[in-house]
Amino acid sequence: MKQINKITLLTLLLPFYCISQIPEYYSTINFDLTGDDLKEELTTLITTTHTNELVYTPDVWNTLKQGDLDPENNENVLLIYGYEDNDSDPDNDRTRDKDLSCHTTSCAGKWVREHVYPRSLGNPNLGYEQAGSDAHSLRAVDYNMNGSRSNRRFANGSGNATTLSGWLFYPGDEWKGDIARMMMYMYVRYQSQCLATTVGSGNTTYSNDMPDIFLEWNAEDPVSTYEVNRNNVINNMQGNRNPFIDNPYLATIIWNGPSADNTWLLNNDNFTKNDIAVYPTITTGIVYIDNINNQNYTHTIYNMMGQKVNSTVTDNQIEITDRTRGIYILNITIGNTTKSFRIMLK
Question: How are beta strands 317-320 and 311-314 bridged, if at all?
Answer without folding.
Answer: antiparallel
